[in-house]
Amino acid sequence: MFGKLTLVIGGAASGKSAFAENLIVQSGLSRVYLATARVLDDEMGVKVERHKQMRGTGWKTLETPLSPADELTDLHANEAVLLDCATMWLMNHLMDETDISVAEKALIDGLKSCKADCVIVTNELGLGIVPADALSRKFCQKQGELNQRLATKADTVVNVIAGLPQILKGTL
User: Fold this and answer.
1) Residues 55-103: pLDDT tens digits?
2) Which of 11, 15, 25, 51 is catalytic?
3) How confident is the model at residue 2 (pLDDT cuts 50, 70, 90)?
4) Is 119:127 a contact under the CB 8 Å cutoff?
5) Is 51 a catalytic residue?
6) What is the torsional sign of CA 110, 113, 115, 118?
7) What is the reported pLDDT for 96?
């Protein structure tokens, strides 16, 4: 039996990670955190530490900036996993110039075979202006496409704005 998939989407600093973490805690299952961020500068290091403090103890954290599917397939039904976040994962692939379609297929396959309940955090980038440079436009396009595919696969989709959840699909 495969676990339930929940997609939590929102803008930067919208409260989506805190909301997603709370979903995992409320599940009562063993908590697993799949971290996709790479710490490449001091500001990102501070952000990662802030997220760790917000989560608190009781989480098994696995660093997986490129291949969360490898971890997803090893999880069990008594676990709940938070993948935070699909946006950083996608940026890692763009920066490494990997084949995004291959990476995305691996991620989707990993989600399909995951026995644990899974919550994925992702950013909504489509509400702003069209970026001026080619890499940023490509990133926004790929992020929008990824979000659409994840939303199609998800049992539940929640949009978080100013810390307030709006259920777009399914139930919590």
Assistant:
1) 888 999 999 999 999 999 999 999 999 999 999 999 999 999 999 999 9
2) 51
3) low
4) no
5) yes
6) positive
7) 96
10: CB partners within 8 A, 6+ apart: 16, 123, 124, 159, 160, 161
**Amino acid identity, residue 64?**
T
The pairing of beta strand 164-169 with beta strand 156-161: antiparallel
- The span from the CA of 78 to the CA of 59, in Å, is 14
Domains located in the chain, CATH noted: 5-169 (3.40.50.300)
Q: Report the first-to-last Cα separation within the chain, whole angstroms.
A: 19
Chain segment 109-151, per-residue pLDDT in tens: 999 999 999 999 999 998 888 889 999 999 999 999 999 999 9
Cβ-proximal residues to 133 (8 Å cutoff; 6+ apart), any chain: none
Backbone angles phi and psi of 56, in degrees to 5: 80, -165
